[in-house]
Design goal:
globular, alpha+beta, binds alpha-D-galactopyranose, eight-stranded parallel β-sheet, 20% helix, 15 helices
């Protein structure tokens, strides 16, 4: 529900309220973002907006008054008058800055959400509502529409801005942030996810102080180094955290997959704001007369249950309103990917051997990774030549794909559509399609260059090549990779079209989205898994098309515990692609028990990256059992809520839990492709306990309260593959004839029945070594131990 009340606008989705006001000079200001307060009257809003003016000593925006923008919380700040922070919007005309005064001219409240621009965005929904605030600077002839969309119970505000040039000469847009999150009190910590290749998304928590803190990407992707997700939580020593402040937490994310900047500023009056959008350093846009530019959407999340609650808000929101609805709630194929198994040494024969083994284990989809095309025997050739290598597939890739299908599996292939090798036919034909400067030196990453996706002809060319392969092999799955950052960003196409080179990064990523759009429209049932040298482009823009993303090239289960824990603060578990891979780890050389690898990989979309012929740790029955366990957890992975109970960044004994009440999703769109999924009516919970290093007597009575459980009784037992009959019945619908068996080696923990009340308040006992004296406490002995405990409500 959105209401205008006097000079106020109140957006309330049932979970949160977001209130803004029109200030004395017509600038939109912020009043409140927090728990829902549906019934507020005008006098309440006036009371909320009341505050002490701090404008003594500031420059005044209106002569003869004390009104200044310096001490206001601004919804879309500009620079050049009385606010001195970085602007959300800046424009120039012939190199001269325009000092804008954007004043309110009117509003619209629209029922439903429509697709309002090309590319990724929150999905249309008849129950959503949007407020459009019209702003204008009549002298400068600029109009700005600020849009705010809420979805019922979404606890999220979706912001974007549309800027229109009304003058009869072109203007240059130099800054166009998507929005600002204003916070009115002090004592906040900023949480964000930083990393590198193979060490993506490590949690950073920094206390904010007056000044500016920045996270950003300039690599041409949302990047390994930073992620556009960030959050504000009360610092533990802030006074408000002791005042029963409902544990308020805010989060931001950006529906954009290229260079971005998010900055947290605290001004001289202690006002905190987080502004996020396209990175201005690598952005510029020419606005012709009457032309508009619409920013990507910024998502503003709010929870009164702290950071962990915030992760559930953003996960539900992304699932219900952004991620590809064709797949988001759909059962996913368990894949065997050939990469770590054979790397570039693949051929029809060794792949078929692997595939036959995979089929015996109940794997659903056989994926041939890099090396199947052109003459790619190493990573130094053939990108751009998307036709099968006949030496490796003498009977043809289509015939190979038929053999895979005849084994009862789907067929999947790796592509890196945005790249070109200098050693390729494509480069021979179209060297001008590579992104590089017209003269001089250029950088090369992994022996490859980037294709100019700002050019529609390039996108179309790659699309046509991919169509041919998809159709001839009846492809079910694509792994879409992107393995290098963009350097020396120069497009011959833009030069030829007389467009500014500063438009490159934005146009490039919208070229990527255009290819995604074409593929998902032409082949809606082909599942596209995102990847960028692991998890270098894990963001809402990609999730709009790809329901799952390869979380990291690092498949070491210990490192993955951290990467997955942190990634799941921002994104739903159903977007994390996790594989059991080679042993010892090809990235770190570490060894693990296979149980540990499996129990880490099971919290996400489960699969394998394993040479099943050479790996003697698992029998086919073991793998079938593991897949059975995944199938048992999968409804909760797709629909449920994830709880971060003990952090692997802080503890030697991390723990997580997954809970599904058996009913969600209430708001999930019903599409033909997800209506047939197996839905449990029963509550389900799975608790993952880990011990990374063995340590004695670390906790006297280790127990983990499970706040999500109801009253009543719960059967507690180690996760086992659903015993034969039930799983078989559930899967029969989609996989006629597939068998399963339970190979989980029983640990020394007998099933028990415990009251929910007790588990909620006192806690589930942790499986730790306890001097051998405690009855019925499963024991962890040694490093890298793990156990998943299943809880079933039985009364
Ligand atoms: C990237 C991906 C890997 C694999 C290789 C193939 O590094 O992240 O999973 O596909 O490329 O070259």
């Amino acid at each position: 529900m959105i209401r205008q009340q006097g000079r106020f606008f109140h957006l309330c989705d049932g979970a949160i309220s977001y209130i803004l006001e029109i200030l004395d000079d017509g600038t939109p200001g912020h009043v409140y973002f927090g728990a829902a307060m549906a019934d507020l009257e005008l006098e309440d809003l006036e009371y909320m907006a009341r505050r002490c003016g701090k404008s003594t000593g500031t420059v005044k925006a209106i002569a003869g008054t004390s009104f200044s923008l310096a001490d206001q919380m601004l919804e879309y700040p500009v620079y050049g008058t009385t606010s001195f922070l970085e602007p959300a919007l800046a424009m120039e005309q012939e190199g001269m800055p325009l000092y804008l005064r954007l004043a309110y001219t009117g509003f619209e409240i629209r029922d439903g959400k429509e697709k309002s621009m090309p590319g990724p965005q929150t999905r249309p929904d008849p129950k959503a509502q949007s407020l459009i605030l019209h702003l204008a600077d009549r002298d400068a002839q600029v109009e700005v529409d600020l849009s705010y969309t809420i979805y019922m119970q979404g606890a999220t505000v979706v912001r974007s801005a549309k800027i229109t040039n009304l003058a009869n000469c072109p203007r240059n847009l130099t800054h166009a942030a998507s929005g600002v999150l204003n916070v009115r009190d002090t004592g906040w910590n900023w949480i964000h996810l930083n990393g590198s290749w193979a060490r993506e998304r490590q949690i950073v928590e920094q206390a904010l102080v007056p000044g500016t803190a920045v996270i950003e990407s300039l690599t041409g992707a949302s990047s390994h180094q930073c992620n556009p997700w960030n959050a504000l939580v009360k610092s533990p020593d802030s006074p408000a955290s002791c005042q029963g402040d409902n544990n308020l937490a805010y989060g931001c994310n950006l529906v954009y997959s290229s260079n971005f900047k998010a900055q947290a500023d605290i001004n001289e009056f202690g006002l905190l704001r987080v502004m996020e959008g396209i990175h201005p350093l690598t952005f510029g846009w020419t606005l012709q007369p009457l032309a508009s530019f619409q920013t990507p959407e910024m998502l503003l999340f709010c929870s009164i249950e702290g950071l962990d609650g915030l992760s559930r808000v953003s996960s539900r929101f992304l699932r219900d309103h952004l991620i590809n609805p064709n797949f988001v709630y759909k059962r996913r194929p368990v894949c065997l990917n050939s990469w770590e198994a054979v790397y570039f040494t693949l051929n029809e024969q060794n792949l078929l051997e692997l595939a036959r083994e995979a089929a015996k284990c109940g794997i659903d989809c056989f994926v041939v990774d890099d090396g199947w095309f052109g003459h790619r025997d190493l990573d130094n050739s053939s990108l751009g030549d998307w036709y099968p290598d006949q030496k490796k597939f003498p009977s043809g890739l289509d015939a190979f794909a038929r053999q895979i299908r005849s084994l009862g599996m789907q067929f999947g292939l790796w592509f890196e559509p945005e790249m070109i090798s200098e050693d390729s036919e494509l480069y021979g034909k179209h060297p001008q399609w590579a992104v590089k400067p017209p003269a001089g030196q250029y950088s090369v990453g992994r022996s490859q260059l980037v294709l100019d996706f700002s050019c529609p002809e390039v996108v179309e060319y790659i699309f046509r090549q991919m169509c041919q392969v998809i159709e001839s092999t009846k492809l079910s799955y694509i792994k879409w990779d992107m393995n290098r950052s963009i350097t020396e960003a120069y497009s011959q196409y833009l030069a030829q079209e007389k467009e500014g080179q500063k438009e490159f990064f934005y146009r490039y990523i919208y070229g990527v989205y255009a290819l995604y759009e074409k593929l998902t429209e032409a082949y809606p049932d082909v599942l596209i898994e995102g990847c960028a040298a692991g998890g270098g482009r894990f963001d809402p823009g990609i999730l709009y098309y790809s329901p799952q993303i390869w979380t990291s090239d690092n498949t070491d289960a210990f490192d993955r515990l951290k990467i997955q824990y942190a990634t799941s603060l921002a994104y739903p578990l159903s977007t994390l692609s996790n594989h059991i891979s080679q042993f010892p780890s090809h990235q770190t050389g570490r060894t693990f028990t296979s149980e540990f690898q499996k129990d880490v990989a099971l919290f996400g979309i489960f699969g394998y990256e394993l040479n099943l012929i050479e790996d003697h740790r698992f029998s086919p029955a073991d793998l079938t059992g593991q897949i059975g366990q995944y199938r048992q957890m999968e409804p909760a992975i797709l629909h449920g809520d994830f709880y971060h109970l003990a952090s692997p960044f802080a503890s030697n004994e991390p723990a997580v839990a997954l809970y599904w009440d058996g009913k969600r999703p209430q708001s999930a769109p019903k599409t033909a492709s997800n209506s047939h999924q197996v839905l449990s009516k029963q509550e389900q919970a799975f608790v993952g306990f880990y011990q990374t290093l063995s340590s004695l007597h670390s906790i006297y009575r280790p127990a983990l309260p499970l706040p999500f459980l109801a009253d009543g009784q719960y059967l507690i037992q180690p996760l086992q593959a659903q015993s034969s009959m039930q799983l078989h019945l559930d899967l029969e619908e989609e996989n006629p004839g597939k068998q399963t068996s339970d190979s989980q080696s029983a640990r020394n923990m007998e099933p028990e029945v415990i009251r929910g009340q007790l588990l909620r308040h006192d806690g589930l006992r942790k499986p730790v070594k306890n001097n051998g004296s405690n009855r019925n406490v499963a024991q962890f002995i040694g490093d890298f131990q793990a156990m998943i405990i299943e809880l079933k409500k039985i009364g």
